[in-house]
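So, can you check these tokens?
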Amino acid sequence: MAFSQFKRLIDTYTNFFLTCHETPDGDAIGAEVALYHALLSLGKKVRIINADPAPDKYRYLCKPDTVELIHSMKAAPDPGGVLIILDTNDIHNIGDVAEKLLPHVVEYFIIDHHESGEDISSGRVIEASASSTCEILFKIFSELGIIVSREMAIALYTGIIYDTGCFVYPKTTAFTFSAAEKLVQAGAGPYNLYTAIYESNSVSSLKLHARVLSSLELYYNEQVAVLTMRKECIDEAGALYEEADTLINIPLHSERIRVSLFFKENTEGLLRCSLRSKGNINVSDIAQKYGGGGHRTAAGFKSPFPLDQIQKMVLQDLAGYFPGTIV
């Protein structure tokens, strides 16, 4: 895989801004932090500026002042910089960063592993077959001869285990395991990182999980599961919105369930839909229909419609995969 476009950026510019999609996850944060340290090691000026804060469980990556929020930037952006967008190929998915930072940069560049439904005119490294954006960065660093420090290894390993579900999702390959081995050798600790990501939730998150799981509804002869989280659930549980991020996967633990849908409101009432699937069901196509994106088996979008309406629409979109059954 050639990374000549990215090397051109490194050779040409000194000032870099890094960002990722709204509500960043482990792969997004891991990619930002790894690239941040890589660019610093090359003598570059680097700032990570996001639309939303990272979940608290990633505090081991997000040291004080490492990640800024667009609404409270510590300083105005220096002119002449480049914006690198990680873990999304849609500039509409980076929140207010698009409006407040893009006008100040000379160009932007995308590094991502999601399927794209649009033509992309910017420079880019998009490898849809990769398990994660962190896996792509590992390849980039290897090809460009950038030494992976312990901090970078921890960040890259974080992204890989998050986006592979600990090495079980469909895009996990032999190369994924090979990269993980080298990252462990460079200082990433599998047990400590698994504990930080998957075993550090609050008691209030358990209360939130109980409320959301009680909303479970089944459709198409019990092959499609639907979970719902209203903003009131978050308030009643005293939890954080991001503490519900793994619930989408629970219905798929059932052998019979082929699709899991999670309709969730944040505390401001913004409605999002997460989609997961097994087998030949392409939920990315559905997400793209509503302005979102993702992978064949994992995708999402921000809903332009009220909950009852978008739920009916998405269920109808799945009808072709379940002939002979009714919603």
About this structure: The two ends are 44 Å apart (CA to CA). The chain has two domains: 4-198, 203-321. The longest strand covers residues 105-112. The mean pLDDT is 93.
